[in-house]
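Project outcomes to date are best conveyed with an example. Our students and postdoctoral researchers have been running inverse folding experiments weekly, and each run begins with a structure described purely in tokens. The record below, which covers 311 residues, was selected by the lab manager from last quarter's runs and is presented without edits.
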């Protein structure tokens, strides 16, 4: 980090324990595994925080292949929440995280409100876990498969139950596959969320014209990467103008310039996802590039540029 430049950000001031990051660049869920896989490639401790793969109560195998493909300016994935389950995470991964400097946030996913609360409760007091990110882009099985993240009342119900089950900072990750993301953001803020992160992937598909069928086994998948950046940026801009809690921007961030756009639109911090699949070093370049921009333009703190692009 550059001398005299303050990159520290509070992403959950309101939580009982709070969450202060050394810099605003966070590894996004699903693209950094559990962090340990990256040990030989980069020093993960240089990140502001790391969010692990979406975690469920029981381990999941995910969807059959093919489940991740390249499309123009992005990636379509239908991994289907393949993960080791919360018990293995607590036993095998959290002890590693406990000795790391970088705070690790656990992304949780479930098909019922009770299970979300059970997951959050299970993570309470686990050394190495610094926060929870609630992925509400999962189907609500009890209400007929609708996503929790598409209905303000359901999104609020999940947030409330998770907050009641934990004293950890809780960030709710919003889906862009909605008519009005601001309404969802307001609902989860009211229900006690300490921060919101956005966006998750946009639903899309690709067709193999030689085979004459969808390229993904699951037919559709989540679109990420540069293709979604303008959509994500505008949603962050809208949400940052509507809530008081920190907004964490995510979607197509590949360079320091991209990250700065989100921060100037009002984001407190950013997440880097697909870029890490190309080169994990990108996240470090983004941290250094933000510091360089601040120094070159006479700013001493990341706080000095937040929201500057807001009308
Ligand atoms: C392969 C892959 C797996 C993902 N898995 C998860 C996940 O388990 N939970 C989650 O909340 N988001 C998941 N995401 C979404 C990312 O965290 C991020 O929100 C999205 O990809 C947009 O950011 P990006 O364009 O920087 O990748 C996944 C994305 C990809 C590409």
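After processing, the design step wrote out the following sequence:
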């Amino acid at each position: 980090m550059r001398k005299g430049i303050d990159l520290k950000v509070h992403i959950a001031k309101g939580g009982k324990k709070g969450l202060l990051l050394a810099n605003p660049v966070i590894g996004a869920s699903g693209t950094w595994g559990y962090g340990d896989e990256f040990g030989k490639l980069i020093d993960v401790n240089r990140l502001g925080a790391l969010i692990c793969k979406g975690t469920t109560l029981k381990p999941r195998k995910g969807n059959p292949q093919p489940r991740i493909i390249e499309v123009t300016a992005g990636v379509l994935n239908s991994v289907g929440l393949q993960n080791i389950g919360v018990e293995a995470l607590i036993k095998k991964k959290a002890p590693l995280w406990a000795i790391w400097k970088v705070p690790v946030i656990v992304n949780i996913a479930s098909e019922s409100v009770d299970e979300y609360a059970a997951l959050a409760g299970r993570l309470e007091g686990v050394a190495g876990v610094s926060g929870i990110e609630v992925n509400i882009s999962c189907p609500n099985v009890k209400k007929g498969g609708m996503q929790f993240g598409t209905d303000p009342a359901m999104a609020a119900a999940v947030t409330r139950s998770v907050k009641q089950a934990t004293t950890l900072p809780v960030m709710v990750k919003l889906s862009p596959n909605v008519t009005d993301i601001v309404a969802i953001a307001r609902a989860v803020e009211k229900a006690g969320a300490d921060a919101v992160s956005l966006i998750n992937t946009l639903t899309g598909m690709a067709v193999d014209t030689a085979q004459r069928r969808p390229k993904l086994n699951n037919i559709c998948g989540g679109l990420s990467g540069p293709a979604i950046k303008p959509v994500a940026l505008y949603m962050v801009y809208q949400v940052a103008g509507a809530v008081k809690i920190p907004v964490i921007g995510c979607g197509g961030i590949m360079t320091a310039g991209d990250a700065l756009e989100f921060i100037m639109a009002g984001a407190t911090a950013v997440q880097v996802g697909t870029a890490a699949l190309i080169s994990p070093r990108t996240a470090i370049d983004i941290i250094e590039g933000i510091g360089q921009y601040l120094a070159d333009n006479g700013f001493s703190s990341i706080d000095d540029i937040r929201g500057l692009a807001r009308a």
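The radius of gyration is 18 Å. Residues 9-62+81-203+225-304 form a domain with the TIM Barrel fold (CATH 3.20.20.70). The training component of this project remains on track.
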